[in-house]
Design a protein that fits this description.
heterodimer, A: mainly alpha, B: alpha/beta, six-stranded mixed β-sheet, four-stranded antiparallel β-sheet
Chain lengths: ~280, ~270
């Protein structure tokens, strides 16, 4: 038996139904046409502005084949000592920077929560977090390399700053969304401030923050390669050296190992994430 | 005016910036052992009254005293000390769902446990014994280490009651304890609250939207209408005329507000 409307007792005008079309997203036909015209014009201009020099393309093709050829023959052996040192350094930088960033992000994140912090503290913490997120890691790394010299310390400082900016902001947002009732119950029981945060706030946000921290481990490992390019240590330093020596086989080995690290880390962090929720 | 009053509220006015005055000059006193049911339509100011006694909302004027100690003028440290003496039970239990039953009950002791000890979960051994005793009294033995999000609504509310009682309060402030419970569970929770009050000579103010429950469990009833007390007396004086005054014209049908005692389901 059909559960739908009885078609014999409720005849529907099929003409109206069959000629029905969903209304267009942009109601005005002239605006629609104008948008199409702008898009076509932009595409045409874009194609003409890119100055394609066929001679240089041909020249580049041979180099590209060298490059891709090298990538297809990864060489883990020749530079193994450098590669291992770079990978270990990157992993160490990642873990130290994530741990330091996590610890520092808690006070800043709590201070940047509108529902906990008084207005002046809120403003200061929000500003600090905004500044920490304002510049790309590469810029921060250049600054820290200039301040502390080449090497892993500048890298750790860079990643820690980025981690604080990331986790602090997300912690503040999580805290602003907590259920206020348990916190109020603790207030009503005469609890002092630190206990209210430890029992009423952190249990509500910690699973999410730990999950985000594990995700940040991923990001920091990838970033550690990038900031190595500007002299902040880690596998990035090894990578750019290999590039500079045209050792594309070693480059390939490094890239494969980075992918391998992230592959191995993925199920690990997944399991950790499930165990904290 | 005797000094035996546990709680004395005098000419209390509470206003919110957005809604104007919610309580417009309330006065009443609560003796030791006294259980008062607070009834009134939504928005009449029942919750606001309880919350202003705890100063979770600040009164605009008037006085609130707990065994003679004026609460409205206390600084933050003294206020925390005063709050420890009043146990509050909340509408939706207000537990920290990710913590265990035991941790939630011990949250009631945070007012007297130092933060540093509490954060490391170093609770006073006496408090732990107390918590076990209370959980047993609440019929929750064996659930100590369960997370609260695994409990039923009635069980959660029992944890909330244990959390309030472990404060060793002189007064219980109970805000719609049965709002999220089915009728049978509501009666069980109300019986439990009435029993523990009788056992330890506690005074209590209980907000109830169910007049039947108020009649059955509260020897004294305060009726609130638009921020004023319009009835103060025993349940037998709560007739249809009074209920109309409290709830308005539409609510006179007995089954709407449960003005008859036999509307309340019995639990044996």
């Amino acid at each position: 038996m059909s559960l739908g409307p009885d078609r014999t007792t409720f005849p529907v005008s099929t003409d109206a139904a069959r000629s029905w079309r969903p209304p267009p997203r942009i109601a005005s036909r002239s605006v629609r046409r104008a948008l199409w015209a702008v898009a076509v014009l932009y595409a045409a201009l874009a194609v003409f502005t890119v100055d394609v020099d066929l001679a240089r393309v041909a020249e580049g093709l041979t180099r590209a084949s060298d490059f891709f050829g090298g990538l297809l023959r990864p060489d883990f052996v020749t530079r193994w000592t450098d590669i291992r040192a770079g990978l270990v350094e990157s992993l160490a930088m990642t873990l130290i920077a994530t741990a330091a960033g996590f610890v520092l992000s808690i006070p800043l994140g709590l201070g940047a929560s509108r529902n906990l912090a008084p207005a002046p503290i809120y403003a200061v913490c929000r500003s600090v977090l905004a500044v920490f997120r304002a510049f790309h890691e590469v810029l921060v790394a250049i600054l820290f390399v200039a301040m502390f010299g080449f090497g892993a310390f500048a890298g750790v400082a860079t990643l820690a700053v980025a981690t604080v900016g990331f986790l602090g902001k997300l912690l503040a947002e999580a805290v602003e969304e907590i259920d206020p009732a348990p916190l109020e119950a603790l207030t009503a029981a005469g609890s002092p401030g630190p206990s209210r945060i430890a029992f009423g706030v952190l249990p509500q946000v910690m699973p999410r923050i730990l999950g985000l921290t594990l995700y940040r481990v991923d990001i920091n490992f990838r970033e550690s390669a990038i900031i190595g390019l500007v002299g902040a240590g880690g596998i990035g330093a090894t990578l750019i050296t290999a590039f500079a020596r045209y050792e594309f086989e070693s480059v390939s080995a490094i890239l494969i190992l980075m992918i391998a690290v992230l592959f191995v880390g993925e199920p690990l962090s997944g399991r950790l994430r499930r165990s904290v929720s | 005016m005797s000094d035996a009053a546990v709680l004395r509220v005098d000419d209390l006015v509470v206003g919110y910036a957005s809604e104007g005055e919610v309580l417009r000059g309330l006065s009443f006193a609560l003796e030791a052992n006294e259980i008062v049911g607070l009834i009134g339509a939504s928005g009449a100011g029942k919750s606001t009254l309880l919350r202003s006694v705890q100063r979770l909302v600040e009164p605009s004027s008037g006085s609130i005293s707990l065994r003679g100690e004026e609460l409205t003028t206390l600084g933050s440290t003294e206020l925390r000390a005063a709050r420890r003496r009043m146990g509050m039970i909340f509408q939706e239990h207000a537990l920290v769902e990710r913590l265990t039953v035991m941790e939630n009950v011990l949250c009631g002791t945070l007012g007297r446990t130092g933060s540093w000890r509490a954060i490391r979960r170093r609770f006073d051994a006496e408090d732990v014994v107390d918590a076990f005793r209370l959980l047993d009294r609440m019929g929750l033995s064996g659930l100590e280490d369960r997370r609260c999000d695994e409990l039923s609504g009635g069980q959660k509310q029992r944890v909330g009651i244990a959390r309030a009682l472990i404060q060793n309060p002189e007064l219980l402030l109970v805000d719609e304890p049965t709002a999220s419970l089915d009728p049978a569970a509501s009666v069980r929770i109300m019986s439990l609250i009435a029993e523990v009050c009788a056992e330890s000579g506690l005074a209590a103010i209980i907000n109830l939207h169910d007049v039947g429950l108020a009649r059955r469990f509260c020897p004294r009833i305060l009726g609130l209408h638009e921020g004023r007390i319009v009835f103060d007396g025993p349940p037998r004086d709560l007739d249809d005329a009074v209920l109309t005054e409290i709830y308005g014209e539409e609510a006179v049908e007995p089954h709407v507000v449960g003005s008859r005692q036999d509307d309340v389901p019995r639990v044996d």
